[in-house]
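Saturday, quiet lab. Running sequence design on the structure tokens for the scaffold JK sent over.
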């Protein structure tokens, strides 16, 4: 069931004065306002650490225990654990003084209207779902830091100074684990999710629509279309996320600004051969799909390591395109399956690059060479495109504000002027990719140990969680 604390109103009312008053009654010793947003007293710094570090870390740990599995973290779209996580996030949003609701795609929203509810809103978000055997920071960090930053402002009596509405969104699905369709939550809000997605089914045969219905969310093709936000009502979108790479750790800084997100293509390659007996079919007559698939996978690796050795220069593929690929192209193979028999081999291919034209050139060259290899081996090769997302450039103006906020946060925590905030590219996909179809976007990366993600070994230090929360707080204060 959806959280009883979260509703689905047509309009979003202001947080009541009684709620704000109750917060101050609970914590009477804390100051409700500061003489200046740039002056931080000892008590205010204590508040920042208590909320943005200690409580935020405790909530990340608590959320990390909400799982559908006993021995590892797994939270997929509309699973029991996903619903429990949404309920918990609702509670924390309301604790921060936000009005909450759950929409028809299972996204959890928390909103404060600000001084001028008619102004365009700032959206802050990330995803509450996980991969299988996940870490507890991917997705959750962006949600918790946003809620904590707004709570800190609320306790300081500054939430009411926001000039525009601010809305935190915990997206229901970004990973695409259950239905093999990424960005279900953010794509619905951005208005780029096809209504046919409602009828995509998981391994058990249950559709997206059925999974929502099982949690008392009735979603039709008509009200799915109504989920799209009016672009004229949105000012911008920002997202905090773990880096999922080693760059920030290498340079010794906790925060980095994201310049852009690589485009992605996911392929499913099926090789069909003949199920010849292991001992009776001579080598020259064999049609083994596994060896053919192995050659295709090695081809993929070689092509993506040295694209300049494979791509021809013509009107569609210039020297600058190949040079761009050399710096950003990454190709990997995910699942490999021999089901339903040894005569069939299926594997998935993930291709990412900042240059969309170059990515298309890679796919074209890869496909042609794969077909030739399969012909030579007398096996059938089928290549299906399962997912495409163009590269996204983050907005320069919004990014400049976010970079300045990150710089301010690092200075406040260390007491010293930090080195310049580094600028990175993201090879991983994020909800910001879908949201870029709705509004301008900006992203902040947070250092993670060893660059490890999608693993129980995924780790962000308590101080780096604090730095991220401080950066969002500093950004929100620019809206006052």
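Result came back. Writing it out in full:
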């Amino acid at each position: 069931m959806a959280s009883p604390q979260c509703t689905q109103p047509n309009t979003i009312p202001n947080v009541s004065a009684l709620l704000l008053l109750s917060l101050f009654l609970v914590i009477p010793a804390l100051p409700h306002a500061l003489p200046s947003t740039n002056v931080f007293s000892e008590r205010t710094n204590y508040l920042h650490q208590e909320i943005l570090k200690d409580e935020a870390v405790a909530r990340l740990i608590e959320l990390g225990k909400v799982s559908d599995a006993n021995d590892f973290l797994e939270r997929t779209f509309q699973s029991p654990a996903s619903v429990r996580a949404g309920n918990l996030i609702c509670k924390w949003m309301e604790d921060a003084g936000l009005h909450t609701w759950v929409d028809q795609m299972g996204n959890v929203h928390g909103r404060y209207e600000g001084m001028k509810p008619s102004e365009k809103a700032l959206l802050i978000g990330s995803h509450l779902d996980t991969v299988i055997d996940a870490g507890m920071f991917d997705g959750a960090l962006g949600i918790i830091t946003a809620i904590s930053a707004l709570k800190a402002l609320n306790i300081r009596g500054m939430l009411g100074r926001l000039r525009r509405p601010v809305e935190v969104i915990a997206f229901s699905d970004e990973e695409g684990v259950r239905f093999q369709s990424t960005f279900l939550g953010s794509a619905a809000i951005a208005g780029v999710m096809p209504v046919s997605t409602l009828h995509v089914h998981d391994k058990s045969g249950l559709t997206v629509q059925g999974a929502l219905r099982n949690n008392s969310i009735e979603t039709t093709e008509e009200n799915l279309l109504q989920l799209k936000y009016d672009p004229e009502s949105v000012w911008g979108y920002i997202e905090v996320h773990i880096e999922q790479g080693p760059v920030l750790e290498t340079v010794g800084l906790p925060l980095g600004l994201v310049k852009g997100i690589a485009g992605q293509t996911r392929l499913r390659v099926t090789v069909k051969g003949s199920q010849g007996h292991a001992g009776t079919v001579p080598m020259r007559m064999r049609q083994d799909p596994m060896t053919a698939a192995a050659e295709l996978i090695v081809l993929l690796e070689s092509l993506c390591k040295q694209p300049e050795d494979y791509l021809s220069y013509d009107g569609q593929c210039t020297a600058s395109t190949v040079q761009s690929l050399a710096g950003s192209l990454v190709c990997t193979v995910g699942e490999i399956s021999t089901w339903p028999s040894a005569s069939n081999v299926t594997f998935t291919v993930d291709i990412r690059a900042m240059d969309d034209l170059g990515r298309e050139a890679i796919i074209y060259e890869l496909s042609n060479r794969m077909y030739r290899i399969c012909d030579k081996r007398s096996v059938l090769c089928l290549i299906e495109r399962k997912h495409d997302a163009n590269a996204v450039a983050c907005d320069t103006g919004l990014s400049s504000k976010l970079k300045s906020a990150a710089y301010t946060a690092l200075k406040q925590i260390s007491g010293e002027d930090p080195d310049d905030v580094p600028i990175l590219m993201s090879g991983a996909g994020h909800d910001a990719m879908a949201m870029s179809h709705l509004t301008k976007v900006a992203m902040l990366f947070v250092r993670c140990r060893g660059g490890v993600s999608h693993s129980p070994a995924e780790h962000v230090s308590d101080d780096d969680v604090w730095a991220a929360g401080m950066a969002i707080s500093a950004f929100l204060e620019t809206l006052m």
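Notes for JK: The radius of gyration is 24 Å. The mean pLDDT is 88. Ask whether to fix the surface positions before the next round.
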